[in-house]
């Protein structure tokens, strides 16, 4: 097994650790594959002493990651938050149910879960299909445009606006807030941290007005109404309200949006698999799972050890930070054969960990799958193919794994 060479720094600066998978340039330049391959070859559990986010354990293979997710009492979401960026003195503290432990996590999750039941998916599917059709029919064929902006962002932002019953003409505010909230790199920059604080307070004030406008009204199926009419969330303070809003906005925006972009970019990289899918639209349901696996739109979540313990022979100390690298576990060759390829009829595509595992598995997973699947079905109905015309501009960060821009042209097949 070839090992990665150590990169030397300039005099006075520390050498770059080639196995430090938190470096933003790995994701900006799409070069994260090699260090994760090396980490998996070394057993998948590795302690990083020096990173921009402090010391942490990388868990980068499938089996130990599932083990950590299955032991939420030992590996806490609440103790240190859900990203490897630590919450520093003076930072905004935004409690959210994904960053809570039981029992509070269970009660708050149960409040919003009815928005994502199978019956709700049936109720929303016609609307999702209609909006997807409208967007696709508005796109130019044979002319270059930005797929991320005109398809991925527009579809997911419309969906979020419906879920919150948010003012339609201002729905792009949701994308703006999501991008600021989900940028882990801001933790390194005091100026941008202060800017984010102001922007998120604006978000809180806006939603606070929506909340006030719905107090005392009959229950409705939107998420704000569900919170108002629940015992678990009706008395949240402002920061907890903001935290749960940000969770639902980032969760609903970044995951679906970046998987939709991966559909365009990824199938362009594997034209044989694209041809297989075009010839057999019955594979769309499975291909949806495969594209989500291949992209893994949130690269990691963080857990914090609540006690001294052992993981696969490694001594984990109380207070240690663990980065759960879903992006790597979804390329674990011992689970997914030929894992770097999109294989639209992959038999075990559903085993992916892109939505997490255990009690914190993404509450909106069904909705994300539905939106991506409908997009692919409506493209197939129109016999439309996405042809990528240039390199994507990617998010330079180790949390949201996504695309900022993707130039494409559509053609018929």
Q: What Rg do the Cα atoms give?
A: 21 Å
Summed up, the helix count is: 14
Order of helices and strands: HHEEHEHHEHHHHHHHEEEEHHEEEE
Number of domains: 1
What would you say the CATH architecture is?
A: Orthogonal Bundle
Description:
The protein is of the alpha+beta class and about 425 residues long. It has a single domain, classed as Orthogonal Bundle (Cytochrome p450). The protein is built from 14 helices and 12 strands. It has helices at about 25-30, 35-40, 60-70, 105-110, 120-140, 145-165, 170-180, 190-215, 225-230, 240-270, 270-280, 285-295, 325-330, 365-380, and strands at about 45-50, 55-60, 75, 145, 300-305, 310, 315, 320-325, 385-390, 395, 405, 405-410. The chain has a 5-stranded mixed beta sheet with strand order 1-2-8-5-3. A 3-stranded antiparallel beta sheet has the order 4-12-9. Strand 6 and strand 7 (about 315) form a beta hairpin. Helix 6 runs antiparallel to helix 10 (about 240-270), helix 7 packs across helix 8 and helix 10 (about 240-270) packs parallel to helix 14. It is globular, with a radius of gyration of 21 Å. The model is unreliable at about 1-10 (pLDDT under 50).
């Amino acid at each position: 097994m070839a090992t990665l060479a150590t990169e030397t720094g300039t005099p006075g600066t520390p050498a770059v650790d080639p196995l430090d998978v938190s470096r933003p340039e790995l994701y900006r330049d799409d070069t994260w594959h090699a260090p994760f391959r090396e980490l998996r070859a070394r057993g998948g559990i590795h302690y990083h002493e020096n990173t921009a986010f402090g010391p942490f354990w990388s868990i980068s293979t499938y089996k130990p990651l599932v083990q950590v997710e299955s032991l939420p009492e030992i590996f806490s979401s609440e103790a240190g938050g859900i990203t490897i960026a630590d919450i520093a003195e003076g930072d905004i503290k935004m409690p959210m149910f994904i960053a809570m432990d039981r029992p509070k996590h269970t009660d708050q999750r149960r409040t919003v879960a009815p928005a994502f039941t199978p019956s709700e998916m049936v109720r929303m599917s016609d609307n999702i299909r209609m909006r997807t059709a409208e967007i696709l029919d508005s796109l130019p064929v044979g002319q270059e445009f930005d797929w991320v902006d005109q398809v991925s962002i527009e579809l997911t932002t419309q969906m979020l606006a419906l879920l919150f019953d948010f003012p339609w003409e201002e729905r792009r505010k949701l994308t703006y807030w999501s991008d600021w909230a989900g940028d882990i790199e801001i933790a390194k920059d005091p100026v941008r941290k202060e800017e984010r604080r102001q922007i998120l307070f604006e978000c809180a004030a806006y939603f606070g007005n929506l909340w006030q406008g719905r107090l005392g009204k009959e229950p409705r199926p939107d998420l704000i109404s569900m919170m108002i009419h629940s015992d678990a969330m009706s008395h949240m303070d402002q920061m907890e309200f903001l935290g749960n809003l940000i969770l639902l906005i980032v969760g609903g925006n970044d995951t679906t949006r970046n998987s939709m972009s991966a559909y365009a970019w990824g199938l362009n990289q594997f034209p044989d698999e694209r041809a297989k899918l075009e010839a057999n639209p019955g594979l769309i349901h499975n291909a949806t799972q495969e594209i989500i696996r291949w992209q893994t739109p949130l690269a990691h979540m963080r857990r914090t050890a609540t006690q001294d313990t052992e993981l696969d022979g490694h001594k984990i100390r109380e207070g240690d930070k663990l980065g759960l690298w879903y992006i790597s576990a979804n390329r674990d060759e011992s689970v997914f054969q030929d894992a770097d390829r999109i294989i639209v009829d992959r038999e075990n595509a559903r085993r992916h960990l892109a939505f997490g595992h255990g009690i914190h598995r993404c509450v909106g997973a069904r909705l994300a799958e539905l939106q991506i699947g409908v997009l692919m079905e409506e493209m197939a109905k129109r016999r439309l193919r996405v042809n990528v015309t240039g390199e994507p501009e990617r998010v330079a960060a180790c949390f949201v794994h996504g695309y900022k821009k993707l130039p494409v042209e559509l053609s018929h097949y």
